From TrEMBL:
<keyword id="KW-0472">Membrane</keyword>
<keyword id="KW-1133">Transmembrane helix</keyword>
<keyword id="KW-0812">Transmembrane</keyword>
<protein>
    <submittedName>
        <fullName>Uncharacterized protein</fullName>
    </submittedName>
</protein>
<feature type="transmembrane region" description="Helical">
    <location>
        <begin position="20"/>
        <end position="37"/>
    </location>
</feature>
Length: 315
């Protein structure tokens, strides 16, 4: 209540302090749970009779998901198994709601005790894709219904600016006009078959994009269930790593004279001169953003007031 009616200051600094504190708290909690789990295992071993299989499963419970299917350890070590439930590979839960991961991961082996075992990134999760698609179409950050009222109230004008570093695409025009040749962008050449001939007036498309090169291939090697490679270890050092960052190639056609009536098809006079095909190439950059957030009358509005490109994500 002592802050009621006072202006908020140093919000970005406070946010950073809070982020550091939250990560430190989470790391400390995980370490405490692991230590408590190990101590509880030895209490159970000293006080109860367990089969060799149950002992193996109990010691592996925090690392090997397969060990969780041993019924005996639930009967003989209830507290230890409760602690093992905090393992990171299980979903988090808050206010009776399960957290949703932003990434999907594969694994190199079903046996997590194997010296060649590790998890590796596969692709973004479906919830992240849905949220990102929604935000793109809406042109604003996605939030739950009524959030702006909770934050600012219905009769207030709340405006603030934040700065952060995030990915961005830097686009350059590489071709313009019928028959023009598409330039290279750095060391990247346009995809085979991609040219202004695909676009009107020569082609059948008013918009054509190539976005599926390089890292965007879902599968990096021949794998089986759970992404386990079919080849024997050792595995390639680059497995699961982003080795290339492909250019996004986009072709589109614009009207030569937007105020004039356009011909409806290529058989009509003036079709060949009514459109100008263009091609742009976009490279993935790290960038500094300055974004203005405005909550007014229950509406959330955002505006990127400044964008500074720092460097390419992958050279």
């Amino acid at each position: 209540m002592t802050l009621d009616g006072k202006p908020a200051v140093d919000q970005l600094t406070m946010l950073r302090y809070g982020t550091v504190l939250s990560f430190a708290a989470k790391a400390g909690l995980v370490a405490a749970v692991v230590v408590a789990f190990k101590q509880r295992i030895w209490i159970t071993v000293r006080n109860k009779f367990l089969s060799v299989t149950a002992l193996d499963s109990l010691f592996a419970a925090a690392e090997d998901a397969g060990a969780l299917f041993n019924i005996e350890i639930y009967k003989q070590a209830k507290i230890a198994m409760l602690l093992a439930a905090f393992e990171w590979r299980n979903a988090t839960k808050s206010d009776n709601l399960y957290g949703l991961s932003m990434s999907l991961w594969n694994t190199t082996a079903s046996d997590t005790a194997s010296p060649d075992w590790f998890d590796y990134y596969d692709r973004p999760s479906n919830p992240l894709i849905r949220v990102a698609t929604h935000a793109t179409f809406m042109g604003q950050a996605v939030s739950k219904s009524g959030t702006s009222i909770d934050i600012c109230g219905s009769s207030w004008n709340c405006t603030y600016t934040i700065n952060f570093t995030a990915p961005a695409y830097k686009c350059s025009e590489l071709a313009s006009g019928v028959g023009s040749r598409i330039k290279t962008l750095g060391d990247q050449k346009p995809p085979e078959g991609f040219s202004t001939k695909l676009l009107v007036p020569e082609g059948n498309y008013s918009y054509y994009a190539y976005t599926s090169g390089g890292e965007y291939s879902d599968q990096q090697m021949d794998t089986g269930k759970g992404g386990i490679p079919n080849m024997e270890p050792p595995f390639p050092e680059a497995l699961g790593a982003f080795r290339t960052e492909p250019v996004i190639w986009i072709g589109y056609s614009v009207r030569t004279n937007p105020s004039d009536a356009a011909p409806h098809n290529r058989s009509m006079p003036g079709w060949s001169d009514a459109f100008v095909p263009k091609v742009i190439g976009c490279e993935h950059y790290e960038a500094d953003y300055t974004v203005l957030f405005n909550f007014t009358g229950g509406q959330q509005l955002t505006n990127v007031t400044e964008l500074k490109f720092i460097r390419r994500i992958i050279e």
